[in-house]
Amino acid sequence: MPVTEVQRLCDLHVGAFREGLWVARDSGFFEGSTVHFLGQVRMVADTAIIVLGVLPLFWFLFRTFPALKAKGIEEEKSVWERLGVEL
Predict the structure, then answer these.
(1) In the chain, is it the N or the C terminus that has fewer CB atoms within a 10 Å radius of its CB?
(2) 77 in helix, strand or coil?
(3) Which pLDDT tens digit goes with each residue over 17-50?
(4) What's this model's pTM, rounded to 2 decimal places?
(5) According to the model, what pLDDT value does residue 83 have?
(6) Tell me, what's the pLDDT at 87?
(7) How far apart are CA 87 and CA 65, in angstroms?
(8) How many Cα atoms occupy the beta-carbon half-sphere of 83 within 13 Å?
(9) Can you tell me the distance from the alpha carbon of 32 to that of 28, in angstroms, rounded to the nearest whole number?
(10) Which residues are CB-neighbours of 67 under 8 A, at least 6 positions away?
(11) What DSSP letter does each residue of 9-59 carry, written as one string?
(12) Would you list the domain boundaries of the chain?
Protein backbone atom coordinates (compact mmCIF):
# COMPACT_ATOMS: atom_id res chain seq x y z
CA MET A 1 0.00 0.00 0.00
CA PRO A 2 1.51 3.33 -0.98
CA VAL A 3 2.26 5.83 1.75
CA THR A 4 -0.25 8.26 0.29
CA GLU A 5 -3.08 5.77 0.86
CA VAL A 6 -1.98 5.21 4.45
CA GLN A 7 -1.74 8.96 4.82
CA ARG A 8 -5.26 9.39 3.50
CA LEU A 9 -6.62 6.74 5.89
CA CYS A 10 -4.78 8.20 8.87
CA ASP A 11 -5.79 11.74 8.00
CA LEU A 12 -9.46 10.91 8.41
CA HIS A 13 -8.83 11.23 12.12
CA VAL A 14 -6.85 14.44 11.72
CA GLY A 15 -9.56 16.12 9.72
CA ALA A 16 -7.89 16.60 6.35
CA PHE A 17 -11.25 16.51 4.64
CA ARG A 18 -12.58 19.21 6.94
CA GLU A 19 -9.44 21.34 7.23
CA GLY A 20 -8.02 21.03 3.73
CA LEU A 21 -5.21 19.34 1.83
CA TRP A 22 -2.47 21.23 3.65
CA VAL A 23 -3.26 19.21 6.81
CA ALA A 24 -2.80 15.95 4.89
CA ARG A 25 0.65 17.04 3.69
CA ASP A 26 1.98 17.86 7.13
CA SER A 27 5.59 16.78 7.60
CA GLY A 28 4.72 15.30 10.97
CA PHE A 29 3.03 12.40 9.22
CA PHE A 30 6.13 11.49 7.24
CA GLU A 31 8.26 11.63 10.38
CA GLY A 32 5.81 9.43 12.28
CA SER A 33 5.95 5.78 13.20
CA THR A 34 3.65 4.57 10.40
CA VAL A 35 5.88 5.71 7.56
CA HIS A 36 8.98 4.60 9.45
CA PHE A 37 7.47 1.12 9.88
CA LEU A 38 6.57 0.91 6.18
CA GLY A 39 10.13 1.84 5.29
CA GLN A 40 11.48 -0.91 7.52
CA VAL A 41 9.11 -3.48 6.03
CA ARG A 42 10.08 -2.44 2.52
CA MET A 43 13.70 -3.34 3.24
CA VAL A 44 12.68 -7.01 3.38
CA ALA A 45 11.27 -6.90 -0.15
CA ASP A 46 14.23 -4.90 -1.45
CA THR A 47 16.66 -7.42 0.03
CA ALA A 48 14.74 -10.30 -1.57
CA ILE A 49 14.88 -8.61 -4.97
CA ILE A 50 18.62 -8.05 -4.63
CA VAL A 51 19.40 -11.57 -3.42
CA LEU A 52 17.05 -13.46 -5.73
CA GLY A 53 17.37 -11.27 -8.82
CA VAL A 54 20.46 -9.14 -9.05
CA LEU A 55 23.04 -11.49 -7.53
CA PRO A 56 22.18 -14.43 -9.84
CA LEU A 57 22.36 -12.06 -12.79
CA PHE A 58 25.83 -10.88 -11.79
CA TRP A 59 26.91 -14.49 -11.21
CA PHE A 60 25.71 -15.41 -14.70
CA LEU A 61 27.48 -12.45 -16.28
CA PHE A 62 30.81 -13.09 -14.52
CA ARG A 63 30.55 -16.82 -15.30
CA THR A 64 29.90 -16.36 -19.03
CA PHE A 65 31.92 -13.21 -19.77
CA PRO A 66 35.30 -14.97 -20.02
CA ALA A 67 33.86 -17.53 -22.43
CA LEU A 68 32.42 -15.04 -24.91
CA LYS A 69 33.41 -15.77 -28.47
CA ALA A 70 36.53 -13.82 -29.36
CA LYS A 71 37.21 -12.49 -32.85
CA GLY A 72 39.78 -15.21 -33.48
CA ILE A 73 37.34 -18.09 -32.98
CA GLU A 74 35.87 -19.58 -36.12
CA GLU A 75 32.13 -19.48 -36.75
CA GLU A 76 31.59 -23.24 -36.37
CA LYS A 77 33.20 -23.37 -32.91
CA SER A 78 30.80 -23.29 -29.96
CA VAL A 79 31.19 -21.08 -26.92
CA TRP A 80 29.18 -23.64 -24.93
CA GLU A 81 31.87 -26.27 -25.53
CA ARG A 82 34.39 -23.96 -23.92
CA LEU A 83 32.08 -23.69 -20.89
CA GLY A 84 31.58 -27.46 -20.74
CA VAL A 85 27.83 -27.20 -21.26
CA GLU A 86 26.03 -29.72 -23.43
CA LEU A 87 22.99 -28.47 -25.27
Answers:
(1) C
(2) coil
(3) 666 666 666 777 677 787 788 888 889 989 998 8
(4) 0.45
(5) 74
(6) 72
(7) 19
(8) 16
(9) 6
(10) 79, 82, 83
(11) HHHHHHTHHHH-HHHHT-HHHHTSHHHHHHHHHHHHHHHHHIIIIIHHHHH
(12) 3-66
